[in-house]
Amino acid sequence: MCSTEGPLHLLLLDGVNWLKLAYSSAILIPHSGNSRRTGIVPSSMSNITLEEHFVTESFLRATRANGERTPPQLAELQCKLLDIGPGRIADMDKSGIYLQVLSLAAMGFDALDADTASSLAHDVNDELAAAVRSHPARLRGFATLALKAPATAAAELERCVTRLGFHGALLDGTTDGLFLDDPRFLPVFEAAAHLGVPIYLHPARPPQPVQEAYYSGLPGELGFLLSIAGWGWHAETGLHTLRLIVSGLFDRLPTLQLIIGHMGEGLPYALARSSGILSHAAPHLRQPVADYFQSNIHCTTSGYFTLPPLRCALEVVGIDRLLFSVDYPYSPNTRGRAFLDSLPEILGTDDSAKLTHRNAEHLLGLRPAV
Question: Taking the model in full, what pTM does it have?
Fold first, then answer.
């Protein structure tokens, strides 16, 4: 049974390191607020994070019935993932995180058939909306979408934004082994562009043939870890982002905004070489590949808590396209707090404000309090 009363010692996945965090409860202080485009973020507590995860009991039941089994390394995080109320907010308060934008930790979702996944997405979104209504100044939402039914997913995104007050959607990896540049997924991106909300492109476990070819044959848990936060997640999402660019998606939908996490999924480091090679081979694009990071792509810091990758992202992408995130609970809020405390070494007050809340306020349509 899950409990929010502590201490509860949880084994946390943070990059490739396993860390123990002593977690204890605190009393929730009530807050009030409104939905997406009229939301107010008090300027005195304005650390906003965008890649923060949850699950629901309905999601766990559906994926378990389909044969999904949570890896034992992640199973002990389940209590934190299920808590989208007082316990989560107490953890945020300890590290000075004011607002989390929540998204489903959707492991096993892609294995569901289209009808089951579409119904489940609707239910999960309603459950998240209820949590946001209970804590509107502290929690917001990204929609869960069932991409095996793209037209239904586009309609669900519109419902989530216009009726539930969500800020966009988070999409996980490939769907049926297909990257999202496949034309069948265009209705979802068209809906996001029409609604003026971003899509957060998030990693997922690799398709089975990739798992077997790239990550098998290693001792213990090394193959699994290498396929996710140890390397594979970032390599695939970086590739996925480049595919979306060279497919011409952002030329077709020039106002579409994409968010990627983990300090840019390795792309800032490689962007000069990748852009030089790909731009030469893609005369159909309206601008060089690297320039889309100034017009259509944003990067969060999720799961990355050291200054060298941030320096690289600042140099290549620029402060106006970077946003603070933690990747809770896979990374603890305490590491995000320590990272924030290190920022004065390289950022002035104005740029720190952009990273921690101003860029998010602008991208998500949040209005800071006067």
Answer: 0.89
